[in-house]
Amino acid sequence: MNALLLISIILGVSAQDITKKMYNKKVSAPGVYVFTTLSAVTAAVFFALTSGSLDFNLGILPYSVAFAVAYTTGVVGSVVAIASGPLSLTTLIVSFSLMLPTLYGLVFLNDPISLGLFPGIALLTASLFFINRCDKGVKINTKWLISVTFAFLGNGFCTIFQKMQQIRFDGNYKNEFMIIALAITALAAGVMTLIKERDLIGKQGVLGCSLGVICGAANGAVNLFVMILSGLMPVSLMFPIISAGGIVATFIISQVFYKEKLSRPQLIGFILGTASVVLLNL
Fold it and tell me: Do residues 272 and 121 make contact, with C-beta atoms less than 8 angstroms apart?
């Protein structure tokens, strides 16, 4: 059971990155807000269908709004980053966003310092040094750097706001919190679609719409399976496996199907970064 859930989560994490890559490559007129709207609507419907009875509390609204802002920033940033740079490195950098909730826990929640924190930070620093040595490998451009930064911040703050909501309400209203947040995201992204990408709506086709739906369903499934698995195995073991497994799976796909080639320093940086993610999760 645990192994099946782990594999499903890792595949779900990779599926989100792959659908974003396919969307930018295969759809004739891709739009970041169109894709975000489709993904958010699907994820919200997924949570609604799998939640059973719901009990909404107005107190969760500020947390849902904050999460929606971070979620939208993360999705839009990752879609643009994957379109303008290497899939493998984008996945790795976004995985580093776990540093933000870790720092939040240390500073505001008095969490104990884990054994892997300082070695993980050391490997992270070395990884970033090697990744930026791109003289013979994949070129890192300004658009990718800015968008992957937004993806990094959005993903990290999603976890922080989720943690804040769980602490405030003693772990209750998790599904309600997610449904409201995703509905707000869908509404905001939908408005931006009408303002910025109205001409692209009719050009999505079956492929464009299906990729957005698949990404949203994968996002919902990953969150659901993580909640289930966290009650079946230690999170100190679960998250390193998920993080490293997702990075490695996406890396293999990026090399085999998209023919991305990293320079030797970038490959070293990728390996160090994967090890860093595992240590920071311990």
Answer: no
